[in-house]
Design a protein that fits this description.
Arc Repressor Mutant, subunit A; disordered N terminus; 3 strands; about 50% helix; three-stranded antiparallel sheet; single chain
């Protein structure tokens, strides 16, 4: 494994010149969705209308702070909607995938499928 790339560094592709990758370069992946926790959040919400903060935290096995930070990035990008309220006297935070978030996930999955096809050919 190489060292992690800084946010502003250009992606390094070991697949340069691979036939079929013209439209599916690894460097073109949606980096916002590609991160493991964020991909888990949008994937879970793609198959569930809403999930609570605690549901997502347990499902992904992350800390409160970690989930909050990743959910905020997705919310700021317009991929998630955060609904805050109360259930009785207990605060309740629910998340829902927005139409833009669904489009982003579908685009990401299509891109990954194209990469897999190109590498297998």
């Amino acid at each position: 494994m190489g060292k992690p790339r800084a946010q502003n560094e250009e992606p390094v592709s070991g697949l340069t010149g691979v036939p079929g990758l013209a439209d599916a370069s690894p460097g073109d992946l949606d980096r916002l969705v590609h991160e493991r926790v964020r991909l888990g959040i949008v994937s879970a919400l793609a198959v569930n209308e809403t999930l609570t903060f605690n549901d997502l935290k347990a499902l992904l096995g992350v800390t409160d702070g970690n989930l909050s930070a990743h959910a905020r990035k997705l919310e700021d990008a317009g991929y998630l909607e955060c609904l805050k309220g109360y259930q009785g006297r207990v605060p309740r935070t629910e998340y829902r995938l927005t139409p833009n978030g669904r489009v982003a996930l579908e685009g990401y999955l299509s891109h990954m499928e194209a990469l897999i096809r190109a590498v297998r050919e």
